[in-house]
């Protein structure tokens, strides 16, 4: 049997034995999201929680996030997010040493706002350390323009570092691959070129096989959406971020990666952004449309089918 097939079998068995009892007994799933605004926007973790608890009766989905705007896994590593991953065993002395290093960074460059935020996160971890000694069940690692250079990408270097820490405590890893370079702000009149997307996805597939991770393959899913529903847009016009449609697809993709199960039929039908239109009107998004997008029954079903089809297309690259 090929290595990739063995990896897929292993992951399937983990899902089977780890989650087969969800329909008959209560279970808590502790999930850590590591990312930037592509995780923060639209309360993605909360969307995944709603989907997970709706699709897996008896499940309590407990989510924690470490978010630094515009940052990548390499930056999270330099900001000591690994201490949060290792909260079950990290020592107070290690956290204090991390804080000291971050203070040096902040002192040398007062504009290092991320160091300041990281210091706050480390102090919060230190303060509540004994209450946070539990291990994670799942760690979600978001990419951001650091996965475009194949094997030489920083994502390929730092995702394995976090994955090693996660797996040491028995946690599964999900690679949340963002696709800011292929999001369309306007409806398409012709299908996009699939070739560069397939090159990228093959690199992500190779990384997933290397570290035994699952994937939310948003480049592939966005491509399928653009092919089948070219009328839909995937980013804002007045904001470079993913819009509610792509955020919804992302939530579906993470659900599918969590449970190796189709999201078709999930009742969740809306997504709300966290950034509103200029001024004080919090009911409008960055394009001036309703900040909450409720999908019609037709769109909800088709988006769920697109997310699942995109996953299946990606899995073919791992066979």
Structure description:
The protein is of the alpha/beta class. The chain has a single domain (3-67, 134-316), classed as Rossmann fold. The protein is built from twelve helices and seven strands. The chain has helices at residues 3-19, 37-40, 44-55, 73-78, 82-85, 92-108, 113-127, 154-168, 195-211, 218-228, 244-259, 297-316, and strands at 27-35, 59-67, 138-142, 172-177, 214-217, 270-272, 292-294. The strands form two sheets. It has a five-stranded parallel beta sheet, sandwiched between helices. The protein has a two-stranded antiparallel sheet with strand order 6-7. Strand 4 (172-177), helix 9 (195-211) and strand 5 form a beta-alpha-beta unit. Helix 8 (154-168) runs parallel beside helix 9. The protein is globular.
Q: In brief, what are we looking at here?
A:
This protein has twelve helices and seven strands. The strands form two sheets. The protein has a five-stranded parallel β-sheet, sandwiched between helices. A two-stranded antiparallel sheet has the order 6-7.
Whole-number radius of gyration? 19 Å
* Spatial gap, N to C terminus: 11 Å
- Give unreliable regions as ranges: 19-24
Query: Structural class, judged by helices and strands?
Result: alpha/beta
Largest sheet: 5 strands, parallel
Order of SSEs, N→C? HEHHEHHHHEHEHEHHEEH
The CATH fourth-level homologous superfamily: SGNH hydrolase
Largest sheet strand order = 2-1-3-4-5
Overall form: globular
* Strand composition percent: 5-15%
Number of domains: 1
